Amino acid sequence: MSDKRKVDGNSKNEQLEEYRVDDKGKELTTNQGLKVAEDEFSLKAGERGPTLMEDFHFREKMTHFDHERIPERIVHARGYAAHGEFELYESMKPYTKAKFLQEPGSKTPVFVRYSTVAGSKGSGELARDVRGFATKFYTEEGNYDLVGNNIPVFFIQDAVKFPDLIHAVKPEPHNGIPQAASAHDTFWDFVANNQETAHMIMWHLSDRAIPRSFRMMEGFGVHTFRFVNEEGKAHFVKFHWKPKLGIHSTVWDEAQKINGKNPDFHRADLYDAIESGNYPEFEFGVQVIPEEEEFSFDFDILDPTKIWPEEDVPVKIIGKMTLNRNVDNVFAETEQVAFHPGHVVPGIDFTNDPLLQGRLFSYTDTQLIRLGGPNFHELPINRPVCPFHNNQRDGYGRHTINKGQVSYHKNSLADNTPETVAPKDGGYEHYQEKMEGRKVKARSNSFKDHFSQATLFWNSMSKPEKEHIIEAFCFELGKVQSKDVQQQVVDMFANVNLDMAREIADNIGVKEPTEGGSEVTKVSPALSQENSTKSVATRKIAVLLDEGYNGEVVNNIVQQLKKQGMEPEIIASKLGKLKTDKGPQLEVDNTFLTVDSVLYDAVYVAGGAGQDKTFRDKAGYFMKEAFSHFKPIGATHEGEELLKHLDISSIAAGVITEDSTESFVSRFTEAVKQHRFWERGVG
Predict the structure, then answer these.
(1) Is 604 annotated as a binding residue?
(2) 113 annotated among ligand-binding-site residues
(3) Using an 8 Å Cβ cutoff, are 115 and 79 in contact?
(4) Taking a C-beta distance cutoff of 8 angstroms, is the pair 303, 446 a contact?
(5) All domains of the chain, ordered by start, with CATH?
(6) Whole-structure pTM value
(7) Predicted local distance difference test score (pLDDT) of residue 11
(8) Number of continuous H segments (helices) and E segments (strands) in the chain
(9) What's the rounded Cα separation, in Å, for the pair 675 and 672?
(10) What is the pLDDT of residues 176-215, one digit of tens each?
(11) Is 149 a catalytic residue?
């Protein structure tokens, strides 16, 4: 690649172009370029004879097939990704010398991979789990990887315990059960005996762990990093991605059903949104603390089980990421992308967060086995857009053909090149932090408070969110076979909130704790999804119709919903165009056999004059399930009769009926924007 290649929002796309191949309309060849005359039959000794080993085309084809798979990631195996660009709003020059954060309006190509943590590649996407949110910035100074999650804290404080955590949450080794689930004995035994998990568990059992969409969840860098400016002054920093669509989730019963109905729900949602031009957008924010204020808080800012409450340390929005292109090949891009928190650029550095320190080792280590050797940086998706030169050579998967006789530093034969670069000219320089202390296997006393922020999270939840957390505890612990483990967990979380722990104990049949509670009364409104942005954009609306519907009115409503940014889909008993009593005939998008209410955000039912028992039964189940999941339901014409038949009151929260089309659309739009109607008290 030319050293003069311009680095901008299209540069990565241009770089990948030389690797893209469209086989349509091409002649079939071997991997060596030899044209193939026959691809139906192997070479045999006679028509009924044995296959001959000299059939090199058969051997190449079969050998390649036998080696098509690489080891899946130990964690984050189930993932999906997209390309995009990051645009800077505001210069960060006072804080960091990172070039991609200097000039407002500058654009940097990015690649983002979302994932679940615990499940295998074949698991469902609506598991209760943390979601990975990893972003690769292809900057002119090299690749910068922000490898984060949709939850701002983690289960453990020190990376040495990471293998233990994952062993505990993975399927139990004696029977390989359960897949992609934390609701089993070993995980909760780990929790009860490692109380630093308390804060993360509150997030894990909240609605954050079952998001509606990748497009509707926050992203966090989790760790505390450093910004370093041109003068060498450092600030502590945490990173945030805030979705423009707001933060929204499913409900647990809905999530379980989606896993059965469409285990690819999240990836399909992301893919379809990008294909239709509804590009996901995330604003990029930073929390910044001056070095001299490191010890000004009632928690250790390097503790990965702690947040910096946004009310205490505001999030400064400095840019926006837009995902605008799907991958061309899931294996070549999504599977082969290699992230590493140690991939940084000048102006971004590490802290002594012990979990981060361990990640700086483990990510490279895992890529070596997964991608077959040290040259994974040469895979197209991992290649920087800037030139790279060094004395590293050979190894599995080497693409670069290095010219010349020199491959060492220092040298005279090549005038001591590749040469090092002074920090003032862009060479990376580690921040010079003064270090003192004895070599010990220990943890700072400032890391020992495990419950205060767990209580802060609980205090900050709305009433429905608290109910969901308790229900999640009861589900998870209800799957645990050991009464002793159940009791340990209940006693542990009495330290977060005594009333919560007592309610859980009552539901799972263990002894209610008599001691515990917390004196923390602080609330952080930023932690509740109820305070998130509300939007109707890209919300999927199921429109239930049968023959004899009023095509004039229904088509008008559908078009108005589309103008508001919603995505209505016509659902009926069969495909084709439905007969109307008047107005245009609408094309049916799906039938009751191919979709379900859990795949939609709201339901509008108009029915039809000819609606029969089959339609009433199928549409009725669809509506009742949507109602039980607190979703908006709109009804006009014969749809109102179906509401009455189902004993769904037209005055129930989020149920919209109107004679006036304009009024109906207005009220229904507001209902969709609200997302859920928890006051119904069912689900």
Answers:
(1) no
(2) yes
(3) yes
(4) yes
(5) 79-378 (2.40.180.10), 452-527 (1.20.1370.20), 536-680 (3.40.50.880)
(6) 0.94
(7) 77
(8) 16, 20
(9) 5
(10) 999 999 999 999 999 999 999 999 999 999 999 999 999 9
(11) yes
